[in-house]
Amino acid sequence: MSPNRAEIIKAILTNNTLSEDKKSEIIAEIMEEFQKTYPDLQYHATKADVKETELKLQKEIENVKLEIEEVRREIKEVETKLTKDIKEIEAKLTKEIKELDLKLTKDIKEVEAKLTKNIKEVEAKLTKDIKEVEAKLTKDIKEVEAKLTKDIKEVEAKLTKEIKELDLKLTKDIKDTKFSMLKWQFIFWITQMSALIAILYKFIHK
Fold first, then answer.
1. CA-CA distance, 36 to 42, in Å (whole number)?
2. Residue 29 falls within a domain, yes or no?
C-alpha cells in the first residue's frame, strides 16, 4: 500500500464528520481499487510482507485510535470549556438582567413618584386658581348686582317721581280743561239765553 493511500485512510479515520459505516465503506472501496491496480500482488507477496503490512496497518490503526481519542478528549475539553463559558455568560447575563430590572423598577418608581408629586402640585395650584377666580367672580357678581339694584332703585324712584309729576300735571290739565269747558259752556248758555230773551221780547212787543 502506498503512503498516499495510508494517509488517505488515516484522514478518513480521523474525520469526525463521517460515521463509522461510511468510513468502513470508503476504506473498502480504496482497498478494492488497490487490488484492481495490483491484481498479481497477492501472488507475489510473501507471508512476511503480509505480516509486515498487517503490523503496519495495526500500528496505524492504533495510532489513528489514539489520535481519535486525543481528538475526542480535546472535543470533550472544548465542550466542557464551552459549557462552562456558556454557564458563566448565562449567569452574568442573568445578573445583569436582574440588575437592569431592579434599576428600571427603581427608575419607574422615581418617575411615578415625581409625576404624582407634579400632578398634586398642579392640582393644588389649579384648585387655588379656581377658588381665586370663583371668589373674584362672586365679588364681581355681587358688585354688579349691587350696582344694578342701586340703578334699578334710582330708575324706579325717578320713574315714580316722573309719574307723580305727570299725574299732577294731568290732574291739573284736566281740571283746567274742565274749568275752561265750563266757562265756555256758561258763556254759550248766557249767549243763548240772551238771544232767546231778545227774541221773546221782540215777539211780545210786536
1. 11
2. yes
